[in-house]
Description:
Elements: H1 16-30, H2 35-38, E1 46-50, E2 55-57, E3 65-71, E4 74-79, E5 85-91, E6 96-97, E7 112-115, E8 119-125, H3 126-135, H4 139-163, H5 166-176, H6 178-183, H7 186-193, H8 197-208
Antiparallel strand pairs: 1-8, 2-7, 3-6, 3-8, 4-5, 4-7
Amino acid sequence: xxxxxxxxxxxxxxxxxxxxxxxxxxxxxxxxxxxxxxxxxxxxxxxxxxxxxxxxxxxxxxxxxxxxxxxxxxxxxxxxxxxxxxxxxxxxxxxxxxxxxxxxxxxxxxxxxxxxxxxxxxxxxxxxxxxxxxxxxxxxxxxxxxxxxxxxxxxxxxxxxxxxxxxxxxxxxxxxxxxxxxxxxxxxxxxxxxxxxxxxxxxxxxxxx
Length: 209
């Protein structure tokens, strides 16, 4: 099978320093690191741009990278036994995405990651992250806080899946994440919320009317 995750070359005029600035800004929101230390980040990341529907990672591939979303939107999913895609999460600007179980060990991915729209990312490999954390150990606090926040959000989502009705799930999601409603195709949103696309369409018509 050809490697469908080969990214596009960044458009002419896109400067690596400009691409990495959103990551630096994001780091500053979580912890204080000296500017000189932040200036060391650029060589450890590879900027890439993926087309709409292009794979960043495919299930079964060796997962040796994680991605910081600079601009765009991606989704992560797995194939159920019936062959239907089950969406488990999305990532927009300033979010990290990978198969986080496979990434530390460079193991086979259990999930696929695909671009919802043209998406620019900063990619870092397992090895390069290890080197970066040795060079700038203060970043350990950043990654700890970011993924602690992400894990807490996953716990809340699971609770809502058990407690909320389908309409309550959609209403809560559309209120808290209105950008997704505009940017994510209906069939992906339905998969994420556990609906059929037809049922989601009925709910949306009700709220529009």
